[in-house]
Specification:
8 helices, 47% helix, 221 residues
């Protein structure tokens, strides 16, 4: 694997990238022996369109529901249950499996303890992305996956440039290629809303951590 990141992916280059076209270019190059993907997922609504878009290009997709940021535990369990229900209900072009992932919110709070006062969407979110994608990259390396990526870019509130930069950097570090994406583009976010309604999925209005919930409540109230 080429571990030299192209200059256009560097964080100082802030012009919009054609992540969708790049993903299409990569996946169109897969041969008859399709690869296996480890997909980090945060919830069922975000996974709905992402799985629909990805499944034709892989022979197997395993979902890594690593989200220590989500609290309380009841919220975490609800999102996980909805994700499993979606996978059991929907028909995809390849087999999809939700893996068992330990839930340990302490690791998120430990990471964020010096960033409590920062605004939503800032540095705390960056390191939350990094924490979740690093766990995915580690799992991909140790379990022999061909590629890894995340559903997070489908949200209009997530910084796709950060996500792809982190993913590419970790892919180079761990030796497993990261599939760039911006699932919200080309109607992806709108499609996820339609699919959520079709399957009656629980849709939350905050990312999952206590800080994002406080931000959502302040905007609503």
């Amino acid at each position: 694997m080429d571990t030299v990141l192209p200059r256009e992916w560097m964080p100082e280059n802030r012009d919009k990238k054609k992540y969708v076209k790049e993903m299409e270019r990569i996946t169109s190059g897969f041969g008859e022996e399709k690869p296996v993907l480890l997909l980090h997922a945060c919830c069922a609504p975000c996974s709905s369109y992402s799985l629909e878009a990805l499944s034709p290009h892989f022979r197997q997709i395993d979902i890594w529901f690593y989200n220590p940021n989500i609290t309380p535990a009841a919220e975490y369990e609800l999102r996980l249950a909805e994700l499993k229900r979606l996978v059991d209900t929907a028909a995809y072009a390849c087999p999809v499996t939700v893996l068992d992932v330990p839930y340990d919110p302490a690791v998120f709070f430990d990471m964020a303890r010096d960033m409590v006062s920062l605004p939503e969407g800032g540095e705390r979110c960056y390191w939350c992305y990094e924490q979740r994608l690093r766990s995915t990259a580690e799992k991909a390396k140790h379990s022999g996956y061909d590629w890894f990526t995340t559903t997070l870019s489908i949200s209009p509130y997530k910084n796709a440039h950060w996500l792809n930069w982190i993913g590419l950097r970790l892919g180079a570090e761990y030796g497993v290629p990261y599939l760039v994406s911006d699932f919200k583009k080309n109607g992806g976010y709108a499609r996820s809303i339609v699919l959520s309604e079709t399957y009656g999925l629980y849709r939350q209005n905050w990312c999952g951590c206590v800080y994002s919930r406080q931000a959502a409540n302040s905007q609503n109230g």
